[in-house]
Write a structure and sequence with these properties.
This protein is mostly helical and about 140 residues long. Helix content is about 80%, strand content about 0%. The protein binds protoporphyrin IX containing FE.
């Protein structure tokens, strides 16, 4: 990611994170539309889950400039996701739903450049998490 892309992601997420409940609700609604089979994996309170998701994304997004800091936390998060029944392939639908939710929140503020920056950020995060899940499966 370029420094400009990191800034775009951080600035856009600041706006989105001000409305965590709305963003999370849009995200889960879209995710379950794209892949209804994943609904059964979520066993806890969805409002609480949504808050944890937005809080965690906030931390990740604010550490994008120090990739080495965020990597171990993402690997641990990925390993926990194996226990939740999440599969490597699920990162595709989650990425689509996440970008859709951010776009829905930002409206015209979600420019093509912002989309490209988010695609780069999500590829970075999902890449580390997928790799950690594959490694855990090998051991
Ligand atoms: C950007 C990638 C992701 C982030 C930042 C993220 C974040 C989180 C966080 C913070 C939690 C709370 C529990 C914990 O910290 O261990 C969680 C739980 C969970 N996540 Fe994710 N997640 C991501 C990707 C995914 C994917 C691809 C799926 C697949 C559908 C998924 C499904 C779940 C499920 C099923 C739970 C447990 C829910 C429950 O216990 O009710 N997550 N996630």
């Amino acid at each position: 990611m370029t420094p400009a892309q990191i800034e775009l992601v951080q600035n856009s997420f600041t706006l989105v994170a001000r409305q965590p409940d709305e963003t999370a609700a849009l995200f889960y609604r879209r995710l379950f539309e794209i892949d209804p089979s994943r609904k059964a994996l979520f066993k806890g309170d969805m409002k609480r889950q949504g808050k944890m998701l937005i809080d965690t994304l906030n931390i990740i997004v604010n550490q994008l400039h120090t990739e080495s800091t965020v990597q171990p936390a993402l690997e641990a998060l990925a390993r926990r996701h194996i226990a939740y029944g999440v599969e490597v392939k699920d990162f595709t639908s989650v990425g689509t739903a996440l970008l859709w939710a951010i776009e829905a929140m930002l409206g015209p503020g979600f420019t093509i450049e912002t989309r490209k920056a988010w695609m780069a950020a999500y590829s970075f995060v999902a890449g580390i998490m997928r790799e950690a899940m594959r490694n855990a499966a090998r051991h």
